[in-house]
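anyone seen this seq b4? input:
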Amino acid sequence: MLLINGWLKLAAGEFDKVLVQGQAMVKATNEEAGCLHYAFARDIGDPDLIYISERWESEAALAAHSASAHMAEFNKAMGSVKVEGADLWLYSAEAVKKIM
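predicted toks r here
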C-alpha cells in the first residue's frame, strides 16, 4: 500500500477558483480501481490551506491515477492559481520519499 499525505497552501481566495474541478477530481478518483481513499480538506482556520490524504493499493494504481483525464483537468485548473507552498509525502513499506 502507498500513502500520500500533506498540504497545499494557496494564495488568499485561490481555492474557490478550483473548487468545482477539485470536487469532480476527488469524486472520480475515489471511483478508480486501486484507490482506497482520496480526500481534500480545508483547514477551518485557513481556508486556503488544503490537506491531502490518499491511499493506493499499488504503484500501478497511483500511476494510472496520475495519467487520468480527471487529474489532467484538475492540474490544468491548478495552473491558473497561485500556490504559496506545498509539502506532500509518499510513504510505502519499502521507502519514504518526499514527492513535493
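Helices lie at 15-30, 59-66, 69-78. Residues 15-30 form the longest helix (16 residues). kinda curious what u guys think
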